[in-house]
Task: structure prediction
Amino acid sequence: MRILALTWKHPLDPTAGGAERYLLEVCTRWIKAGHQVTIFGPYHPQVPRGPQELLQDGLPYVGRGSRLTVFRAARRYLHANGHLYDRVLETVSTRPFAAHRIVGAKAVALYHQTAEEVWNLEYPLLIALLGRHIVEPLWIRQMRSAQVVANSPSTAAAVQRFGLRCLAVVQPGCDVPESVHVHLASFSSPKLLWIGRLVRTKRPEDAISALALIRSQFSSATLHMVGDGYLKARLSARIRPGVTIHGLLSEPEKRSLLADADLLLLPGTREGWGIVAMEAAAYGVPVIAYDVAGLRDAVVDGVTGLLVPPSSRALATAACQVLSDPPLWRRLSASARERAVSFSWDRCAQDLLECLTQGSDTAVSTIESSRSLSPPTAQADLCRGVGTANSTGRGPRFASQGSSVRPLESQSMEPS
Result:
């Protein structure tokens, strides 16, 4: 099958995030399964421009325009070349490409997030008001006739508020090390970790403020911060005791910090999912996160970590609670590792492929937020798709109209 994937950000851009990681993971697996896959997106500022470049595993990439102009460039490309592809996958991080208006039913939109509150933190007041209450709602509503897949129950619930309907929720996978030496937490000198972009929406300053409060009980506690962004210079100039700002690190360096961490602090405004939380879970690191969209999908409250109201004091209180209770830390650590193992990139690619190949023939299902699973024991069996978790704890992905719910595991990635 010939697949075109649209992205607004180059997958190898230094600011690339979870959406770009998701795209690379599924596309490289489709290539290996024998499909013909091409990614279309903006030029990379540090890569020589040409008609096409190759990403990892020989994945073709067609670059046109910048992050601002790539949407118009994509429409031109689809008008000229859309007939060459069997399916078009557009990844949506706030602004859509609206590929369905050009290629019709063979387009599927994978929504990673809506911005909403992010406008208020990242833009001046007037732009924020226009963006949140006029521009973004218009962008989303133009997708009402599109076939939509969401990366989390939170994202599905967000787009449904604007009248969109989802074929399925296909959550990201997780890279789980074959063997992990789960250390005994250093409760006398706890090592805390924060990973993300150093921008206001990720609330890195809340993690720093939380450390100051934690050190009133654990005086030797330290906080290692991994990531880059426009706040780095300001935070580095006002460094606080116990805080180390590493900037961008290689994957091996990041994994080394994860393997040695006692807790991951994850404040935020809203997320599409929370890949960082799952990466920590793979190393048996409990997560203390804000109870906001996306993070409440990646962290099962009371099972793999704790969700708290958005405040540095609440973050610190929960961290101290876990660090003061070794049996609780061990239980959260074991459950986090166990849950992370169940999230597979292979399965993610397979499930998304079925949405592409059968989306136009599949009726839309109602997707409920994972918060409907209120007891922690129910959240431990969080349905990784549409509907209620089944006896396996995995749950169905989407339902066909007039029939019973069909799990996506049945779809093969064999090329057509």
Summary: The mean pLDDT is 85. Residues 1-173+344-416 form a domain with the Rossmann fold fold (CATH 3.40.50.2000). The longest helix spans residues 125-141. The radius of gyration is 21 Å.
